[in-house]
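R.M. (postdoc): so does anyone remember the format we settled on? I'll just put the structure tokens first.
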């Protein structure tokens, strides 16, 4: 009897343990299923939106460009010989006409002194023959020969003076020596580079405009320049060159001259602002709203909280904004920031909404 009771108790205990274990397994499975379902629920994408309102702006436009020296030249020797004097070093600022380099002209100077002596003798001979001719004591041929001798020595003197002058290399304009290409004792030929000189008092803005923008640009047009490194200052300039031929990408080169009052350097990036004087109503969107992985320019239009990809036609660029000429209308709300996380048809969470007049 006691043995039967023990068996019954053992069976009950085993049954209870099995039930508890089954309950735990079932509860664990339910938890995993719930977690799996929760993992499949997409995390809401948060974006900033913008309601587009027309803006009245000047019909001007701006383009990016780069600064270049107004003038740049490799100053070369006009004489042959050894450098006896080099008057500048890299970084020196020189005035127009300043002596840069001198080639040894000692032999030319000796030849010049000799030629002056010979000229004086030939001149005296010529004057003597003129007196003899007046007294009918010499022939016309002898007088002409004496005159030719005097003239020949005169030509020799002018040639030597020019050669001596060319032995001195001078700065053609005011500027900075950016590279020294010769040294004292070096031998120069005609055309051998001596220094590289750039004009630092003026700079040129080198720009490339498309065919739509180039139509209104003329020589003498006023332009405002803002260097990217000095964004709080606008510099006045004027158009000095408009290339009538486009490059391979269909852009026309325009050069704008401006005074280098800011001590800017050649090679700096800039933005040039052209003003046409008219005003118009346009829709402007931030460049951050453009969908970069789209085949054509596009933005995400918000229909409630749902994103719809919309192709647009773009106009002029204005710093961090760009005009939209077709594709969306005024009062349309678009995704302004966060487009990189958005897909067609996605339900979005709007963190902030502004309008384009702010």
């Amino acid at each position: 009897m006691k043995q039967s009771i023990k068996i019954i108790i053992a069976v009950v205990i085993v049954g209870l343990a099995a039930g508890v274990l089954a309950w735990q397994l079932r509860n664990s499975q339910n938890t995993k299923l719930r977690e799996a379902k929760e993992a499949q629920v997409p995390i809401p994408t948060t974006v900033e939106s913008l309601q587009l309102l027309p803006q009245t702006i000047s019909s001007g436009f701006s383009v990016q460009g780069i600064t270049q020296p107004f003038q740049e030249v490799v100053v070369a020797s006009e004489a042959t010989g050894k450098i006896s004097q080099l008057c500048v070093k890299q970084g020196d600022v020189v005035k127009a006409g300043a002596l840069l380099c001198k080639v040894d002209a000692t032999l030319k100077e000796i030849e010049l002194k000799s030629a002056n002596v010979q000229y004086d003798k030939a001149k005296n001979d010529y004057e003597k023959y003129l007196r003899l001719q007046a007294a009918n004591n010499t022939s016309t041929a002898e007088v002409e020969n004496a005159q030719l001798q005097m003239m020949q020595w005169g030509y020799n003197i002018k040639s030597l003076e020019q050669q001596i002058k060319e032995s001195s290399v001078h700065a053609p304009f005011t500027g900075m020596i950016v590279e020294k290409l010769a040294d004292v004792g070096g031998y120069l030929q005609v055309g051998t580079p001596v220094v590289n000189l750039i004009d630092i008092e003026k700079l040129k803005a080198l720009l490339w405009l498309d065919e739509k923008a180039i139509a209104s640009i003329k020589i003498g047009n006023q332009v405002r320049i803002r260097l990217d490194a000095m964004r709080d200052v606008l510099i006045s300039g004027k158009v000095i060159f408009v290339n009538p031929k486009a490059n391979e990408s269909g852009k026309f080169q325009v050069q704008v001259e401006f005074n280098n009052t800011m001590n800017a350097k050649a090679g700096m990036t800039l933005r040039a602002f052209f003003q046409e004087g008219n005003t118009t109503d346009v829709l402007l969107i931030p460049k951050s709203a453009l969908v970069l992985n789209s085949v054509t320019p596009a933005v995400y239009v918000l229909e409630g909280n749902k994103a719809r990809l919309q192709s647009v036609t773009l106009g002029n660029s204005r710093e961090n904004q760009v005009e939209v000429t077709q594709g969306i209308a005024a009062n349309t709300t678009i995704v302004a920031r966060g487009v990189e996380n958005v897909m067609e048809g996605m339900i979005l969470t709007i963190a902030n909404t502004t309008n384009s007049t702010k």
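R.M.: ...and that's the designed sequence above, right after the tokens. Also worth knowing: Residues 2-40 form the longest helix (39 residues). Residues 46-56+279-355 form a domain with the conserved putative lor/sdh protein from methanococcus maripaludis s2 fold fold (CATH 2.40.420.20).
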